[in-house]
Amino acid sequence: MIIKEALRLAAKKLSDVARRPLFEAEILLSNILKQDRVYLHIHNEEVLEEKLLKIFFKDIERRAQNFPIEYITKKVSFYSEEFYIEEGVLIPRPETELLIDKVLENVDLDEKVTVAEIGIGSGVISIILAKKLKNARFIATDISKKAMEVSKINLKKHSVEEKVELKECSLLDCVEEKVDIIVSNPPYIAKDFKLDKNVTFEPEEALFGGKSGDELIKKIIDIALLKEANLLICEMGYDQKESIKRYCEKKGLRPEFYKDLAGLDRGFVLKIDN
Ligand SMILES: C[S@@+](CC[C@H](N)C(=O)[O-])C[C@H]1O[C@@H](n2cnc3c(N)ncnc32)[C@H](O)[C@@H]1O
User: Which of 27, 70, 236, 246 is deepest in the core (most CB within 10 A)?
Assistant: First the structure.
């Protein structure tokens, strides 16, 4: 079968799950051929080896079951950089790029600070920040072994392994030292929320934050106070603003909330006077 035909057939198989079926088919084939999409267009009459064709249609079948394309290619783009990803670790979302922007708005690029990230996942937040904040050091935790492995690969890939210390534990239970800034994109979905099919392939511990969803966020606010951090920047669910606002106000704190590009409440910046 030639490339053009294989792509046409594959796109048909993906038409129920993908918004851009041909584009996704091209991504999957270029991933197998280790070529870019332009190559596919230039060589569209070229015959595909039987072995490669088999691998390609196996990937297409998995994608047709809604399995995320990033878990197949093992690549994900975040903040215009490429990261390694694999099943068992949350696929970073574009809205989390806003959390990075909020940190950069609130922290001087040359400041000598210790930043703690709760729930590093694939490592995207700490890695981008480690590249931007020249004099900062990072301590990042996660309860997931897989997240530890994948973030380690990404720290190396982006040459920041010297700046980010990984620690496997819950919240900041294993962090003794003083931290100035806490950042987190914690799990914040309510336990009984019905997930879209494609999200069900992602790890539960990265998604569900408790019965109402914001339980872990409230714990993180408590930790920021206990640790006497000056700044907490945290992502949250679109419907959690009121409960987080109330929780903070009870403690005499005034969070500043920010919205995502869809106009939904998505996170908050909490400045703490110690
Ligand atoms: C929503 S994911 C965010 C991953 C990554 N920071 C990102 O933005 O793509 C949440 C992460 O928190 C981790 N996690 C869940 N509960 C935790 C806890 N109690 N302490 C530390 N990490 C936790 C999960 O394993 C997951 O990697």
Answer: 236
The secondary structure of 202-250 as a DSSP string is S-GGGTEEESSS-HHHHHHHHHHHHTT-SEEEEE--TT-HHHHHHHHHH
Architecture label for domain 89-271: 3-Layer(aba) Sandwich (3.40)
Q: What is the mean pLDDT of the chain?
A: 97
Q: Which protein residue has the closest C-alpha to ligand 1 atom 2?
A: 206
Ligand 1 atom 23 nearest Cα:
119
Interval 210-244: pLDDT, tens: 999 999 999 999 999 999 999 999 999 999 999 99
Q: What is the pTM of this model?
A: 0.96
Is a pLDDT exceeding 90 seen at residue 274? no
With a Cβ cut-off of 6 Å, ligand 1 is lined by 90, 92, 96, 118-122, 124-125, 141-144, 147, 170-171, 185-187, 205-206
What integer is the mean pLDDT of 150-169? 98
